[in-house]
Amino acid sequence: MDKAKTTKKKFDFTKYMALVALIILVIIITVLNPQFIAPNNLLNLLRQASVNALIAFGMTFVILTSGIDLSVGSILAFTGAISASLILGGTPAWLAALIGLAIGALLGALNGVFITWGKVTPFIATLATMTIWRGATYVFTGGNPITGGKMNTSFFFQFVGQGYLFGIPFPVIITLIAFIICYVLLHKTAFGRKTFALGGNEKAAFVAGVKTKKLLIIIYTISGLFAALAGFILTSRLGSAQPDAGMSYEMDAIASTVIGGASLMGGKGRMAGTLVGALLIASLSNGMNLLGINSFYQQIVKGVVILIAVMIDSQTQKNRE
Amino acid sequence: MQIEMKGIEKSFGTNKVLRGVDFDVHSGEVHALMGENGAGKSTLMNILTGLLKKDAGTIKVDNHDTTYASALDAEHHGISFIHQEMNNFAEMSVVDNMFLNKEIKTKLGLVDQKKMRKEARQYLVNLGSDIDVDSKMGDLTVGQQQMVEIAKSLMINAKIIIMDEPTAALTENETAILFKTIRELRSNSVGFIYISHRMEELWQICDRVTVMRDGLSVNTYQTKDVAENQIVHDMVGRDIGDYYPGRHPHLGEVALKAEHLSGKKFHDISFEVHEGEILGFSGLMGAGRTETMRALFGIDKLSSGKIYVAGKETKLTSPSVSIKKGIGFLTEDRKNEGLITEQSLEDNIALPSIDTFRKHGIIDKKAEDKFADMLIKRLTVKANNAQVTAGSLSGGNQQKVVLAKWVGSGSKILILDEPTRGVDVGAKKEIYELMNQLTDRHVAIIMISSDLPEVLSMSDRIEVLYEGKQMGVINAQGATQEQVMKLATGGK
What we know:
The complex is a heterodimer of chains A (about 325) and B (about 500).
Chain A: H1 17-32, H2 39-64, H3 72-88, H4 93-116, H5 122-141, E1 146-147, H6 150-153, H7 155-162, E2 164-165, E3 168-169, H8 170-188, H9 190-200, H10 202-207, H11 212-238, E4 240-241, H12 249-259, H13 271-290, H14 295-320
Antiparallel strand pairs in A: 1-4, 2-3
Chain B: E1 2-12, E2 15-26, E3 30-34, H1 41-48, E4 56-61, E5 64-65, H2 71-76, E6 79-82, H3 94-98, H4 113-126, H5 142-155, E7 160-164, H6 172-187, E8 191-195, H7 201-205, E9 208-213, E10 216-222, H8 228-236, E11 254-263, E12 266-274, E13 278-282, H9 289-297, E14 304-309, E15 312-313, H10 319-324, E16 327-330, H11 334-338, H12 345-350, E17 358-359, E18 362-363, H13 365-378, H14 395-408, E19 413-417, H15 425-440, E20 444-448, H16 452-458, E21 461-466, E22 469-475, H17 481-488
Parallel strand pairs in B: 3-8, 3-9, 6-7, 7-8, 13-20, 13-21, 16-19, 19-20
Antiparallel strand pairs in B: 1-2, 1-4, 4-5, 9-10, 11-12, 11-14, 14-15, 17-18, 21-22
Helix pairs in contact in B: 13-14, 14-15
Membrane topology (chain A): Multi-pass membrane protein
Subcellular location (chain A): Cell membrane
GO cellular component, one term (chain A): plasma membrane
């Protein structure tokens, strides 16, 4: 009782649960349809995964603080639309991208301000901004896609979503770089430690000198920034900004994070887990497409997988205690 | 009713926490169970009330072998367990709390509020309490909540009531009311098992005492036949002599000076504390000591006043600023404000100093490991390694981890709010010795304590607060409890 639990450094299976699930899934789909592991399909899969993965990286920070960001899909659509219309209007594509990212960061920061200074719970605050920015997107676009014109001729714009570097889709490279940055930020820096501390016990973190409000605002800013980055990539990949782009993307991002072992109660989660979670979700969609499974059924399967993943995780947690 | 437990054994994994405990209690007595944290008191009670299964031994209730299947089963047989952290629902009314799972229903199957209210009121009146049964549980004082818990025990016709540190969070007044209630119930042949860390309560309220140590019942005494020294000796297995190591201060410069601090629950508080000094803050609960220090440290807002650190006026607007100025704050509420219980000792200890481990923006993990190991050793935290979770340690060791945080962050001024609350006797002494070591190194300590002997023995000077006002400062040398208490209760 009094004695400290002995934690031996043995192989921690639970840490790799999501990875094992991913490998099993890959094997099953491959057996059913070997085309799945053809290099072209894998590259395609990675490109499909990248938009969700980017959002999920930002979401991981948020969920670690026991928060949630429902507004990512709307921020994605809003910033995507603004960048697209700037390009149409003659702004250089790289500048349009930067402005989109800046607005995304700003909207994220705004979420953080509502949550900290406004004392609105994250769920409600981001539910509200989700609705606001979706509405703003419709107002801004008049409900029509933004497409054509200079968007078709800008090399930069085309390259971000559709280009290849060393044979690898450029979005995949961006995602990989983003992953490395997020991984280091979360697991190797003081910022990451403070994030974990805040998620573990906000009051204790505050007393220990963590500037909790500032930290939360930064974290929601990161989430907004990544949503905007995903937005620009998606717009480029589709060659147009859709007013209903990113609808329910928050759900896939949350699912990736949770499948990766993060707890919605905060204080627990890993960046690598989130990456695996995002790959798992992308493999499911891609695999079921290959197997010719109707997309309506795909949703059901995805939901079941999320439930199973989280149930296994919480069961093994319990057993360990 | 008579309960007789014999040779009770219990292991968790390889850890044997009960190694043959004998304990008995009967209606109409208050039987105290004393022992350090981890001695096995709670485990024993959990076995009695069916929360845990015993590995060996017998439990006889009125001479029949008995094993209760669950806490509910034990309740049905008249044994009620009032836990230290009362399991009530703060947002629900008193009456709804009392009748939870035992709702009285009308013929239609709906809840009969009227009847429940009437009965609830009756039970409380019988206890001499005038608590409004419609008020929210969370709006009651801890003492009142305890009264409700006792009323709940009586509702199920409890013959034996187990109380785990019932007075830990009570004011003196509330304690007196609780004791009166216990005495009355005792004369109505209710029996009590009374778990407490407060030595003096043995002679105030208990008839017999059983001391446990390391999973064994050491001795059982009639309280009128035993002295405090004997109990302490049984608890720790050795003579710890005086609890208090004594003070030999060498005062340096003024480390911190506060002028006319005012805030929500305190007015015009001024004091100074020197390097190497322990300044005690005494007073009853609600005197404003904690509030003063929280505002000083920047957790709450200060409405007016000036603070000087090392002679320079300083605005301490948030904990992070205070920490940078060399101040540390061990809060009263260890679980909610002191520790992140699910994280490792290392994460906890390094948190206030985490920015100093940055090397090109990246945490130098090796340096951090070393830092944590060094502090764990220096503060004699008993833990297998720095990676175990803070929540897995005993109260005393948790408190040392919090201290390690602040020692590690290089605090020159340490505010300790109830540093030995919920800490067992052995660890208490170690914490006192640590305080002395710190002041030997010119650290200034401000210690808030509700434990009078502690304040008198471990302070150099004592500030006494009463209802948010400063009543006076006493030189601790030669001061008496009566002197302090007089000021603390508003006397002059």
